[in-house]
Design a protein that fits this description.
four-stranded antiparallel sheet, single chain, mainly beta, five-stranded antiparallel sheet, about 130 residues
Amino acid sequence: MALKKGDILDERKRFPDSCGLVVKIMGGGEGFAKVVCCGHELTEDDLVTEIAESRGRKKGQLPPGAMLEENRQFPGSCGLRVLVIDGGAGLSGIHCCGHVMTVDAVNDLRFGQMRSTPPEPNSPAGHA
């Protein structure tokens, strides 16, 4: 089953006692098979148009707003990009294009740190 940009999967739709993973598809998704979380398999049956009440959702290793990108682990794949909206304590993998995308596919954000060394000045130091 292929997913399209804007689709939302909510684990609580079929599994109310789960950690409550909610993910939104941000791109790609032609090779999507399933999301495995808390031992449950999330498929097209878990698509929702609105996110249900979020009480009791358990956050995991990925904070809300984390972006998983299939191309980070598997170049040449369909390029599935998934945004974690809530929950996720039991997330073990996303099956797409025959591989399993894990938390290692998270887009690396380092708040408060420089990405590299500062640029070299292009003129001598002094007073203007």
